[in-house]
Design goal:
Oligomer: heterodimer
Number of domains of chain A: 1
CATH architecture of chain A: Orthogonal Bundle
CATH topology of chain A: Arc Repressor Mutant, subunit A
Number of strands of chain A: 3
Largest sheet of chain B: 2 strands, antiparallel
Number of helices of chain B: 8
Low-confidence stretches of chain B: none
Shape of chain B: elongated
Structural class of chain A: alpha+beta
Number of helices of chain A: 4
CATH superfamily of chain A: Winged helix-like DNA-binding domain superfamily/Winged helix DNA-binding domain
Helix content of chain B: over 70%
Largest sheet of chain A: 3 strands, antiparallel
Radius of gyration of chain A: 14 Å
Radius of gyration of chain B: 24 Å
């Protein structure tokens, strides 16, 4: 019996965000936007969803008088990502 | 990128791989720090060797250029902090390694400057002094000041430590090779005269920082060109 894939992660943009953050300590919103080629609005919505389920932390602060949003994966997010990859590997028998 | 597109399992795995690869390609050490320290330490070491070999003195202590290099290094750190959009997990480890290295080097310099005076004072208080005595009496005895013999060997040994740690953490072979060379040069320097220790130290600085710095710089420029 295959495990059900986490519906939060099984969407293109959210998975892309999590895949970027998994190998980093933290990343600025602009960096994520640049790497995913997503629009700011789209990305904001998906980042908010990931934050709501506790997969990422979003830190809003000012840097050189400009607002700066930084995203950071949480322990819960790492566990969810790990489980998602394992489930994928089961499906694909990698 | 559409937000809610449902992916097949294969597409998901491919997306994860692509994103991880994008992160890898987005961070590049500019190599400026390595080049800076490799240059100043190599120059100071080689000039120290030349001063001893050809018996001349510059009007200033050549090692002051190493102290002066701290200023551009601080500017580089501030510039990097301003422009960097990501923080890697290994950044904290690398910063810790280089901080410990800097403290060790300052500690060693402090030891080198203070211990001879302390030893001399202690010896005097016990009514003793160091004398250079020729075993075949070919030269008259000469009073000398205490000094740590072949001290620069210890610097060569310490040059290898942060370089090896950095090389292993960032998986950068030129630094690992540079550090191994530094350890070998340290061993050689234990058997050579002080003036040659400086020569070996200069080579260690080139191997540990200057050459890896050039390689990092070339990689960075190549990557930058590819993104234009």
């Amino acid at each position: 019996m295959f495990k059900e894939l986490d519906p939060i992660l099984h969407s293109q943009l959210r998975l892309a965000v999590m895949s970027l953050l998994i190998s980093l300590k933290e990343a600025e919103f602009t960096f994520i936007k640049e790497k995913t080629n997503a629009s700011a609005g789209n990305l904001s919505v998906q980042v908010q969803k990931l934050k709501e389920v506790g997969y990422i932390d979003v830190i809003k602060q000012f840097k050189d008088n400009y607002p700066q949003t930084t995203c950071k994966i949480t322990t819960k997010g790492i566990e969810a990502f790990d489980a998602y990859v394992k489930a994928l590997q089961e499906y694909l028998k990698v | 990128m559409p937000n809610e597109k449902q992916l097949s399992e294969k597409e998901s795995l491919q997306l994860i791989t692509d994103m991880i690869e994008k992160v890898k390609n987005s961070y590049h050490d500019k190599g400026v720090g390595s080049l800076l320290w490799g240059t100043v330490v190599a120059i100071a070491s080689f000039v120290s060797y030349l001063q001893l070999e050809y018996d001349f003195q510059l009007p200033f202590d050549i090692w002051m250029i190493v102290m002066a290099a701290i200023i551009p290094q601080i500017i580089l750190i501030i510039q990097d902090a301003k422009t960097q959009k990501i923080k890697r997990h290994e950044d904290a480890a690398l910063n810790a390694v280089w901080l410990v290295y800097a403290i060790t080097i300052f500690g060693l310099s402090f030891f080198q400057l203070t211990v001879p005076n302390s030893v001399e004072r202690l010896m005097h208080s016990n009514g003793l002094q160091l004398i250079n005595h020729s075993i075949n009496n070919s030269r008259p005895d000469q009073i000398i000041r205490p000094f740590p013999p072949s001290f620069y060997s210890l610097y060569i040994l310490i040059y290898g430590f942060p370089t090896l740690a950095t090389g292993i953490i960032i998986k950068f072979w030129p630094m690992i090779i540079g550090a191994i060379m530094s350890y070998l040069l340290f061993m050689v320097s234990c058997f050579t005269e002080t003036k040659y220790d400086f020569l070996l130290g200069g080579i260690a600085a080139l191997a540990c920082w200057f050459i890896p710095g050039i390689i990092l710089r070339l990689k960075y420029l190549k990557q930058k060109q590819a993104h234009v």
